[in-house]
Design goal:
Vcp-like ATPase, Chain A, domain 2, binds adenosine-5'-diphosphate, binds magnesium ion
């Protein structure tokens, strides 16, 4: 990749190579790179200086001191946006150098995946949000707008070239043309979007990443890599989210589909479709097959009557036994209902690893609340800690619901001031909107009802099950 930064950006070309590690949750979206004192001294960098990160691409970040436990490890912690902007990935090495930035004279931002009507007031608003922000060409930038809305932009033109800082005098345009970038759209999930589940994420990463990244290592050590993992647990706790993050962050070839989708779309050809998926995975290895709601294509044999379903289950079993002769293929199955799954699926060599994804504990809930309120303008007295404390038995999906409802309650308070005929809501007004504790209390009341009802249904199910066992 070409080095897009002019040399006059640099006092000298002293560089230090550091290994990329992921940012801590609290640092996400702050545009900072955590580096240790030794590196800072070597490069004559002080806290809050702008540095450049050079992977396959070059981008800029704000230097921040590392956490004490990271000192001397030769690592830099950056979030997924900086990872993408620097063209690198976790565990890869990037170069760091000090940079003297210029003031941007002109910058053009293209919105990603949504159309924004160009409007000078909106441009002023965006510029104010980005003041003192360091940018490079091709960078992705996220801006939170109004209530829980994040818009992504790509820097498509920048003058002068190199790394620049946006200042009040910068002329900023928002392009009317949209950049399509699936990876930076609103639905793009990375591990950063998952609260709690640290141990579970680490387990999956070890199983998925080591054999895929270092196949020769596996051959050399003569280890048989784990081939099947089952993620199981109550609905709404992040199984699909986790699988999507694996799919997005892995460099392997990904085949992601859900059981019901296969059955509905390819009813008569389900067996053939399944076989084709496994063939494609082997051809494109290293690859990962992800089957969401796997119980629908592999129900317990005694629970189904149709011959057709029996054939489908047998087909899946023989595919699991027969593949993986060439290259590494990993299969991840997801289910809310382990008890409905054909037990033969769990025998050795098939899904021999089960990872349980349970309801989040208080610490996990705290993180999930922080993730879902990341772009919400919270009033100071909103306490995430209290919210986490008072949401026992809530799943991640419930917490996401609480945050959405709280935004709606807040919006209702502002409705009288909003001109609904106007296509673009006044950015000044958007800036004033705040979500207050009472919005959350109302939201909690609403969602709690569902949680309690679900709790009751689950208890009933359990009693029924126990009674059946007694009989
Ligand atoms: N651990 C979590 N961290 C952050 N958000 C979560 C978490 N678990 C669930 N959510 C939220 O709930 C939604 C539904 O979760 P999902 O992964 O589909 O649950 P599952 O597949 O376990 O039923 C997610 O899209 C996300 O918004
Ligand atoms: Mg799911």
């Amino acid at each position: 990749m070409r080095d897009k930064t002019k040399d006059n950006n640099f006092k000298d070309s002293l560089r230090v190579a550091l290994r990329v590690q992921e940012a801590k949750k609290r640092d996400i979206g702050r545009n900072i790179a955590r580096i240790d004192q030794e590196t800072m001294d070597k490069l004559d960098i002080k806290t809050a200086d702008i540095i450049s990160l050079i992977g396959k691409k070059e981008t800029a970040a704000i230097a921040w001191p590392s956490y004490p436990q990271d000192s001397g490890l030769g690592i830099v912690r950056i979030d997924s946006r900086l990872i993408k902007n620097a063209g690198t990935s976790i565990d890869e090495t990037i170069q760091i150098r000090k940079v003297i930035t210029h003031t941007a004279q002109n910058i053009v931002l293209a919105p990603i995946s949504i159309k924004i009507k160009s409007n000078p007031r909106f441009e002023t608003f965006v510029k104010r949000k980005l003041t003192n922000y360091p940018v490079a060409i091709d960078d992705f930038i996220f801006i939170s707008i109004g209530i829980s809305r994040e818009v992504s932009f790509k820097v498509i033109s920048l003058k002068p070239s190199g790394i620049c800082t946006i200042k009040p005098e910068t002329v900023l345009y928002i392009s009317e043309e949209i950049t399509e970038d699936k990876e930076q759209g609103a639905d793009y999930v990375t591990f950063e979007y998952i609260g709690g589940l640290h141990h579970e994420i680490e387990e999956i990463r070890d199983i998925v990443e080591i054999p895929l990244r270092h196949p020769s290592l596996i051959n050399k050590l003569g280890i048989t890599p784990q081939r099947g993992i089952l993620l199981s647990g109550p609905p709404g706790c992040g199984k699909t989210l986790l699988a999507r993050a694996v799919a997005n962050e892995s460099e392997a070839y990904i085949l992601f589909f859900s059981g019901p989708e296969i059955i509905q779309k390819y009813h008569s050809e389900t067996e053939k479709k399944l076989r084709n998926i496994f063939i494609e995975a082997e051809e494109k290895a290293p690859s990962i097959i992800i089957i969401d709601e796997i119980d629908s294509i592999a129900p317990r044999k005694e629970l189904v009557l149709g011959k057709w379903e029996h054939r489908m289950v047998s087909q899946l079993l023989s595919l699991l036994d027969g593949f993986n002769r060439r290259g590494v293929v990993i299969v991840i199955g997801l289910t809310n209902k382990l008890e409905l799954l054909e037990p033969a699926l769990l025998s050795p060599g098939r899904f021999d690893k089960i990872i349980e994804i349970n309801l989040p504990e208080e610490k996990g809930r705290d993180e999930i609340f922080r993730i879902h309120t990341r772009n919400m303008p919270l009033e100071k007295s909103v306490s995430i800690r209290e919210l986490a404390e008072s949401t026992q038995n809530f799943s991640g999906a419930d917490i996401s619901g609480v945050c959405k409802e709280a935004s709606l309650f807040a919006l209702k308070r502002y409705l009288p001031q909003i001109d609904l005929d106007c296509e673009i809501i006044d950015p000044e007004l958007l800036e004033q909107i705040e979500i207050i504790p009472n919005d959350f209390y109302q939201a909690l009341k609403k969602i709690s009802k569902n949680v309690k009802l679900r709790q009751k249904l689950m208890e009933n199910d359990k009693t029924k099950e126990n009674n059946n066992k007694k009989i």
